[in-house]
C-alpha cells in the first residue's frame, strides 16, 4: 500500500522550513554583529586619512567578509551553494553579459533622446576631484555591489528558494527585497535589473558573474547621468528621467535573451550527450 501524503504533513514540512529560514537569517545577522564588534575594536585613527570614504570602504569590507563567512557556514551545513561554485569565474559569460548590458543601456538612451546626448557631449572627469578620491569611490562602489550580490542573490535568493521549494519564488522574493531597499523613483530601473541579476545567478550560481554585470550597469548609468565624485553630469535629471523606462525595457529584453540562450545551450548539451551515449551503445554492440 502506498504512503498517503496528508495536508498536515506538507504543513509541518513548510513550518520546519520557515523555522530553519528564520534561524539561518538570525545566524547570519549574528555573524554581522560580531564583525561590527571586531571592527569597533580597531577604529580608524583620526587624521588626514580619516575621510568618510575610508570609513565607507572599511564598513563595506567588513560586511562583505561577514557575508562570505555566512555563505561558508551555509555551504558547510549543506543549506547553500558551495563556495567554489559561488566564486567561479566564467570569463566568456561575464564578458558577454557586461557587453550586452552596456550596449543595451547606451542604445536605449540614444533612441529616447539622441539630441540631448549629442548636444551635451561627454564631460571629462571632474578636474576638481583628487584622483585618489575618484579611485576610492570606484573601490567603494565595487565593494557595495559585491555585498548586495552576496546578500540578495547568494544568500536571500538561495534561502527563499529553499523555503518555498521553487527557484522562481526565490528569484522573485530576492528581487522584491532588493527593489524595496532602493529609492522608489528608480523602481522602473531597479526591478528589471533585479530580475536580470536573479536569472543570471539562477543559471550560473556565480556571484562573480552577477557582480561584474551589476557593476557594469551602475558605471554605465553613472557615466550617462553623472556622479559628483566621478564625472560631470552628461545629462540633467530632467533629460535622464524619460530614459529610465526605455533602459528598464532594454534590461528586460536582455534578461529574455540570456534565458533563451541558456536554454538553447542546455538543449545542445543534452543533444550531444544523447548522441555520445548512442554512439557508445552502437560501438558496444559492434564488439559483441
Arithmetic mean pLDDT: 83
What is the succession of H and E elements? HHHHHHHHHH
Inertia-based shape = globular
Main β-sheet: number of strands, strand sense, barrel status? none
How many distinct helices? 10
* Classification by helices and strands: mainly alpha
Q: Low-confidence segments, ≥5 residues, pLDDT <50?
A: none
User: Helix proportion of residues, in percent?
Assistant: over 70%
Report the end-to-end length measured between terminal Cα atoms. Answer: 42 Å
Q: Tell me how many strands there are.
A: 0
What gyration radius follows from the Cα positions, in whole Å? 23 Å
Beta-strand content bin: under 5%
List keywords for this structure.
globular; 0% strand
Summary of the model, kept short:
The chain is mainly alpha-helical and 288 residues long. It contains ten helices and no strands. The chain starts with 6 loop residues before the first helix and ends with a helix.
What does this structure look like?
With 288 residues, the protein is mostly helical. The protein has a domain at 90-287. Helices cover 79% and strands 0% of the residues. The protein contains ten helices and no strands. Helix 4 (91-120) packs parallel to helix 8 (207-225). The longest helix is centred in the C-terminal third of the chain and has 45 residues, at 243-287. The two termini are 42 Å apart. 26% of the residues are buried. The mean pLDDT is 83.
Amino acid at each position: 500500500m502506498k504512503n498517503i501524503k496528508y495536508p498536515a504533513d506538507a504543513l509541518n514540512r513548510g513550518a520546519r522550513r520557515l523555522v530553519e529560514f528564520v534561524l539561518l537569517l538570525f545566524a547570519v545577522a549574528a555573524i554581522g554583529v560580531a564583525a561590527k564588534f571586531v571592527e569597533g575594536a580597531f577604529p580608524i585613527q583620526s587624521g588626514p586619512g580619516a575621510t568618510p570614504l575610508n570609513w565607507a570602504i572599511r564598513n563595506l569590507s567588513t560586511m562583505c567578509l561577514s557575508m562570505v563567512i555566512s555563505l561558508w557556514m551555509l555551504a558547510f551545513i549543506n543549506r547553500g551553494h558551495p563556495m567554489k561554485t559561488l566564486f567561479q569565474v566564467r570569463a566568456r559569460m561575464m564578458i558577454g553579459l557586461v557587453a550586452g548590458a552596456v550596449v543595451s543601456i547606451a542604445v536605449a538612451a540614444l533612441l529616447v533622446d539622441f539630441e540631448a546626448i549629442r548636444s551635451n557631449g561627454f564631460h571629462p572627469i571632474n578636474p576638481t576631484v583628487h584622483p585618489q578620491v575618484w579611485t576610492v569611490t570606484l573601490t567603494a562602489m565595487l565593494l557595495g555591489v559585491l555585498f548586495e550580490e552576496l546578500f540578495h542573490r547568494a544568500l536571500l535568493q538561495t534561502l527563499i528558494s529553499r523555503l518555498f521549494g521553487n527557484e522562481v519564488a526565490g528569484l522573485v522574493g530576492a528581487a522584491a527585497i532588493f527593489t524595496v531597499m532602493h529609492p522608489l523613483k528608480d523602481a522602473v530601473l531597479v526591478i528589471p535589473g533585479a530580475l536580470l541579476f536573479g536569472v543570471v545567478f539562477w543559471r550560473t550560481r556565480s556571484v562573480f558573474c552577477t557582480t561584474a554585470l551589476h557593476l557594469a550597469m551602475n558605471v554605465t548609468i553613472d557615466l550617462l547621468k553623472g556622479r559628483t565624485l566621478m564625472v560631470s553630469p552628461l545629462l540633467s535629471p530632467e533629460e535622464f528621467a524619460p530614459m529610465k523606462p526605455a533602459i528598464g525595457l532594454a534590461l528586460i529584453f536582455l534578461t529574455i535573451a540570456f534565458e533563451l540562450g541558456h536554454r538553447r545551450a542546455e538543449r545542445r548539451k543534452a543533444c550531444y550527450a544523447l548522441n555520445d551515449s548512442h554512439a557508445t551503445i552502437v560501438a558496444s554492440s559492434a564488439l559483441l
